[in-house]
Design goal:
Number of strands: 20
Number of helices: 11
Radius of gyration: 23 Å
Structural class: alpha/beta
Largest sheet: 8 strands, parallel, barrel
Strand content: 15-25%
Shape: globular
Distance between the termini: 57 Å
Helix content: 25-40%
Length: 497
């Protein structure tokens, strides 16, 4: 413990002089509290950019502008981009073209006017499964390297881009206090690395994840006075997740935990099952073999209230970075499914209202999956892309925040968010469909060829170089999908239909 504290103090001391100099030369961005005021409620681009090595590997296509714009049009103000980095890196260096792929998604979100949270996600658990003394130095080295590169890529972006240190750092029941001490070195490394890059990063709002993103553990062992030291005040937020109770929200299969525990489908007090089916009621006690206390929103009020008391009321905004409850469509049917649906709607309704009352930002988990046990709100895996998949849940979320019935009136794109002079670096003109389009990189597309005065390098969405040419490049025999062409300037997105 003593050695750990010395390490943190030494890093902070060596970092602060350079960072203060950077602060003096940078625009001062709004505080975390001011950012919170415009975050409303949010949604995740789940099971996409965080897939290790391949953003399309878990069933979703690469995010489209139609989808991102729809997120904004439906009433969401915040979008979270779970993102893999380690599986796109070698010897601590992130593949440059993977950076370009991530930047494309960030740009679409920022252009839509969304508060955008970019994180380092699980990605094999290189950080989140290694809260241990023997891995601490190795993880801190990667954390510093990755965040230095990420922060430099986005250092000119405005205050609507937030960085989040991790996702769900896993602590154990027996050793969570010491594991949290190690976790805090990872968070300190994150803060120090971002601040040291200067520019708008010197005052950008940063998000710190609690141990296991658990409300109770976060309040117990990561209070405000244990948060990372920062060279600027009021620029940190805290993140927890809420899938409570697990047996209701996420559990899909029967488990033997000393008793046979079944997935629970029915939430609340008025739509519970009877007879042998009571094993599927939220609140059923498998060990007692009887119904316990039914699940109600009081638990949400208790948990979100703790975050308000321990953080929000002390000047540190809070995000619920993920929440949701599985839709048991296809698992149960008939009156059982109707009963489940009423309870699930009540769950979302109470959660949204409790989050708003306790001044925490609820960000729904959404994976795009449309079958059994889905949490999808906006359509991504079927057409029309970006249309509303679950209108009932969307209405509940909108209503809790005082929004009326959803009408798609479109959105107005925001330009200049990246410090450029009024235009995005990857904007509509840089999407090379089948027509002739001139872009900033000096590349044009003529039919199935790319033309340029210089070198052309073509990468897939994983950041892998697939073709290279000088002057002219054929697009024949390429698999359908999205690519990125790089010339002398910014990358251009190439769509092969």
């Amino acid at each position: 413990m003593f050695e750990c504290k010395l390490w943190t103090a030494a890093v902070a001391a060596s970092f602060s002089v350079a960072s203060l100099a950077a602060l003096a030369n940078a625009e001062t961005l709004p505080t975390a509290g001011e950012i919170f005021d415009k975050m409303g409620f949010g949604i995740n681009i789940g099971n996409t950019m965080e897939v290790p090595g391949n953003p399309t590997g878990w069933g979703n296509k690469f995010p489209t502008e139609a989808y991102i714009d729809s997120v904004k049009a439906t009433g969401f103000s915040t979008i979270r981009i779970p993102c893999a980095w380690d599986s796109h890196a070698k010897d601590g260096v992130i593949n440059e073209s993977w950076m370009d792929s991530v930047k494309t998604v960030v740009d679409m979100c920022m252009r839509a006017g969304l508060v955008t949270i970019l994180n380092i996600h699980w990605d094999g658990g290189w950080l989140e499964s290694n809260l241990s003394d023997d891995k601490k130095d190795e993880v801190n080295a990667k954390q510093k390297s990755y965040w230095t590169q990420i922060a430099n890529k986005f250092k000119d972006y405005n205050e609507n881009l937030l960085f989040a240190s991790a996702n769900e750092p896993a602590t154990t029941d027996d050793n969570y206090k010491h594991e949290t001490e190690i976790l805090m070195t990872y968070h300190q490394t994150f803060v120090d690395a971002v601040r040291a890059t200067g520019g708008n990063n010197a005052s950008r709002t940063l998000v710190i994840q609690g141990p296991s993103t658990s409300v109770d553990r976060t309040c117990e062992v990561m209070p405000v006075d244990k948060l990372p030291k920062d060279v600027i005040e009021n620029r940190l937020m805290v993140e927890v997740h809420y899938y409570d109770p697990y047996t209701y929200t996420l559990m899909n299969d029967v488990a033997d935990w000393g008793a046979q525990v079944y997935p629970q489908y029915y939430w609340g007090t008025t739509d519970l099952a009877t007879g042998d089916d009571i094993i599927h009621n939220c609140g059923y006690n498998a060990w007692a073999g009887a119904m316990g206390d039914p699940c109600t929103g009081e638990r949400m009020d208790d948990q979100f209230g703790k975050m308000k008391t321990n953080f929000v009321d002390k000047g540190v905004p809070v995000i619920i970075g993920e929440f949701g409850a599985n839709n048991r469509v296809g698992v149960i049917s008939g009156e059982d499914f109707e009963r489940h649906t009423r309870g699930r709607h009540a769950y979302y309704d109470y959660l949204m209202k409790s989050a708003k009352k306790n001044k925490v930002v609820p960000i729904a988990w959404d994976t795009g999956h449309e079958g059994e046990n889905n949490m999808t709100i906006i359509r991504r895996q079927s057409e029309p892309d970006g249309s509303v998949f679950d209108m009932d849940i969307l209405k509940i979320m909108r209503s809790a925040y005082g929004l009326g019935d959803y009408v798609n009136n479109g959105i107005t794109h925001v330009e200049g968010f990246d410090g450029s002079s009024g235009t995005t670096r990857i904007a509509a003109g840089a999407r090379l469909g089948s027509d002739l389009v001139q872009v900033a990189s000096g590349i044009i597309r003529v039919g199935n060829r790319l033309e340029s005065a210089g070198e052309i390098r073509l990468f897939n969405v994983n950041g892998t170089l697939v073709r290279k040419a000088v002057g002219s490049m054929s697009l024949e025999k390429l698999p359908l999908g999205i690519y990125f062409a790089k010339g002398v300037g910014a990358p251009a997105r190439v769509e092969i239909h």
